[in-house]
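Hypothesis: this fold can be encoded by more than one sequence.
Test: take the structure tokens below, design a sequence, compare later.
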């Protein structure tokens, strides 16, 4: 004898609170995954920066000689400073993984009493890792200084035979990390304070990197 089958009942609907909890749980998982990925990327970037972080270029004056330094103050002419300064600069790249390009050629400028009196280009355009190069600088000429120089202070320096001269090194640098080279350049500014006697070669003088 056949019996009538009972109608199939649909499964009970999930409570709204349970659906909301499931959605919140999925949202939390996505948020945590996003935070984890950001943390991983940040940690990796920090590690790369610590490994490849460029160290400051080191500059020193190995030797410098002031062969001539005279101020002409004749009443009939504009005060002029004649100079003859030769220097050998030691430029060091201390980085083990970073090479350096000097885009705008390095140049050395002499200053006396804050007045510029000469400029010379330094023959250095690229430095490999852990390398020191010697760059000669020759500043020779006559500079019209007008009333910018204190003649009495020059006379006192001339009497003591010691001239306080600042040698500034300036340029624009970029870095090379392996096969990658930075597109953004930075300015290099270095100050070398010298106390020079006429016709007497100076010793080694460390310079101060002001901007890098």
């Amino acid at each position: 004898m056949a019996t009538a089958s009972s109608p199939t009942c649909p499964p009970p609907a999930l409570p709204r609170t349970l659906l909301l909890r499931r959605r919140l749980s999925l949202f939390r998982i996505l948020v945590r995954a996003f935070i984890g990925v950001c943390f991983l990327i940040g940690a990796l970037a920090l590690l790369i920066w610590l490994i490849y972080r460029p160290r400051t270029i080191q500059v020193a004056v190995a030797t410098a000689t002031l062969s001539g330094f005279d101020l002409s103050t004749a009443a009939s002419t504009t005060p002029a400073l004649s100079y003859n300064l030769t220097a050998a600069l030691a430029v060091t790249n201390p980085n083990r993984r970073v090479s350096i390009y000097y885009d705008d050629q390095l140049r050395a400028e002499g200053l006396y009493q804050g007045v510029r009196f000469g400029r010379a280009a330094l023959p250095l355009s690229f430095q490999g890792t852990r390398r020191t190069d010697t760059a000669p600088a020759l500043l020779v000429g006559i500079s019209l200084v007008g009333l910018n120089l204190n003649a009495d202070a020059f006379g006192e320096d001339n009497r003591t035979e010691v001239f306080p001269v600042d040698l500034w090194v300036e340029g624009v640098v970029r870095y090379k990390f392996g096969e990658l080279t930075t597109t953004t350049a930075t300015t290099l500014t270095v100050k070398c304070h010298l106390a020079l006697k006429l016709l007497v070669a100076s010793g080694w003088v460390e310079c101060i990197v002001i901007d890098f």
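The chain has a mean pLDDT of 86. Helices lie at 16-52, 151-160.
Hypothesis status: open.
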